[in-house]
Structure of BTB domain-containing protein:
Amino acid sequence: MSLQELFYCCKTGDIQKLRYLVEEREVDINVRDKWDSTPLYYACLCGHRYVVQFLLEHGAKCEANTFDGERCLYGALTDDIRNTLHSYKAISSRLMRRDQYEEFLRRLLESGLHSDVAFDVHGEKIPAHRCILGARVPYFAELFCTKWNGRHLIELKHRLVRPWAFQSVIQYLYTGRMETSLEFAEDCIRVARQCQLPKLVSYIEDSLKKTLEFQRSKPGVQVTTLTVEPVNSSPMLKADMAQLADTAIPPSLSSWVQGELPFDPEVSQLFADICFIVEGHEFMCHKAFFCMRSDYFQALIEDPFGESYKKNSNIPVITLRNISAPVFLCIVNYIYHDSCELSDEVVYDVLCAADLYLLPGLKRLCGLALMHMTDVENVVWKIRTARLFALPRLEAHCAEFIACNLAEVIEEEDFAELVKEDASNVKERQETDSIDIIDEIRYYIANVVRTFSDLQDADSRLRMIDQLLEDLGLDG
């Protein structure tokens, strides 16, 4: 339903509802409908410049000289919208959250941080990480353990393997997305075939066909960049990286049984370069993931005076204290594939650890998990938790829950205490000042009014709030 509402808002120009869906509900603004169109395209087509600007500011993908970019420019209803697209240079996908998963992998590839292998393609060196390539492609995993075993510089001399094509394929393996010049498409197809990536070959061919058909149907439009981004690329990418998490977890904590993994765990652990010890359990991990995803771990791992020593395998070992193995298990899973199972027993401890380890994305996951466990008795505690850990979506959910269950919640003593605390936080209160939690509840009460009976119900609940404020001696 949220996705249908997203497209509807972009077609009608409902910026307030759009802001709610993107900032509160965190819907994906780069989704496509059955006509292969994005929310940004409809906003451009329908002439809603402020919606276009909002989407660009929040990471709508519309790169210049690509199929999507040229389509938006061609379909834009007004010159103002075209100027808006140009002013953002239509490359606003780089405005994505710093901790977003695909962005993290893009930065990892771009920086080459803790890379353990480099490819020399006709004189051009391309750094990479064996763990990522091995997890993504069996072809690479096999070569790293046989022909390329122990080699940190690998020369690719075949005349048909072009540096730019190989770089584009590596980009796809890291991010699930590929950008290349239209004229290099055939070179990329050859490299993809050599790397035994039949799905990528199919994706490139389909994207090339779609782009050429668009050019022929729109005289004067020139697309120079080919973009390949399969609809299911993110789940496939995370599923492959989850293999690394499975091999990093000690056998005593793993739910996998021998023979289930897609490759030999002992082989995959050859690529590990850091060991964390938690409650006596050894987690064989990779510096690149921990350093790039968390500034805390980067400082810990790269500190020459840190609490670490060398094992017989020359892998640094760091002992983590004040954290349990089940909680660190969640941290490892999140760092590798952006997801983890959060039970009622561990979610708060994981939230505290995520805050300590500077993992805002994991904090949001914990916030989502807490949303599904809300009841009358814990809703006020969850509001306090949301504010303590800066989780606005959780706080908004709790305020909406209170608005829907006001008769029960208003009887709770801790709710009255919360109202008084919010009132005391407004210093030198004036007549126009208001109480945060009361404002939020009133908003959600008014937001559901659709019929006359809804209006009567809302009026009744608003009177309940007024009565509570009067009983507390507050002017809200």
The CA atoms of residues 7 and 33 lie 9 Å apart. Residues 198-217 form the longest helix (20 residues).
